[in-house]
Amino acid sequence: MPKTFLIFAGGLALSDATVLAVRKIEQVELVIAADSGLHTAQKLGLMTDVVIGDMDSVDTNALAEAISHGAKIIRHARDKNFTDTHAALLYAAEHGAQKIIVVTAGGGRLDHQLGVIAAMFDPLLKQLQINALWDNSEIFALQGSATCEFAAEVGDMVGLQSFSATTTGISTTGLRWKLDNESLLSHETRGVSNEATENHVIVSVSSGQLLVIHQQKNREK
What we know:
This protein is 21% helix and 35% strand. The chain has 5 helices and 14 strands. It has helices at 16-23, 37-43, 60-68, 84-94, 110-120; strands spanning 4-8, 28-34, 50-53, 72-75, 99-104, 129-134, 137-143, 146-151, 157-162, 166-173, 182-185, 194-195, 200-205, 209-215. Helix 3 (60-68) links the parallel strand 3 (50-53) and strand 4.
C-alpha cells in the first residue's frame, strides 16, 4: 500500500459524505493542515502532524491546541506567490508521500478552487498519486503516463477533462462512452458526463494532464 498523506484545505465545512469518506481511509502516514484546514482535522478528531501556511485564517486557540499535541508549524509570509494548499502538497512530496489525498468541501472563491486543482498538477508531483475528496466527488489528477482505478456504481458520473493543451493516449474501462488510445484538447468538453457501466473503472493516459472526476449518484450531501 502506498505511503498516504492527508492534506486538509481550508474553506467550507465538509459534507457528511466527505467526512464518511475520510474516515474510511486506512493507514495514513501524515496529516497536514493547510492553514484553517486545521479546524476540519480537529473536528474529525484527527491528530495533525503539520500545519503549514501564512496563518491568516486559522484560529489561534486551534493552533495552540495543535502545538500542544506536537504538531510542527511552518509559517509563510502573507505576501507570497503560492497558496497554502500548494505549499502543503510540495511539503508532502518532499517528505516521502507516495499518495496524497486533498480533503476539501469546495465552494468559496472560484480562484481558490481552481488554484487547488492547478496545484495538484504541479510537475513536481508527477510521480505520485494525487487525489482529492471534493464535496460529493473524488478527483484524480493524472500526469502521463499514469492510471487511476476506483470503485463505482452503475450510473455514477465520470468526467474527463484535459488539463494540458493536449492529453494523449487516453483509454478507459467501465465507462459508457469508451475511449481507446484517444486524445482530448483542453477546450474540448466531450469527456464531460460520461457514466460508469461497471463497478470498477480504470482510466489511463500516456502523456499530458487529465482531470478525472467521479461523482457517486447516491452519495448523501
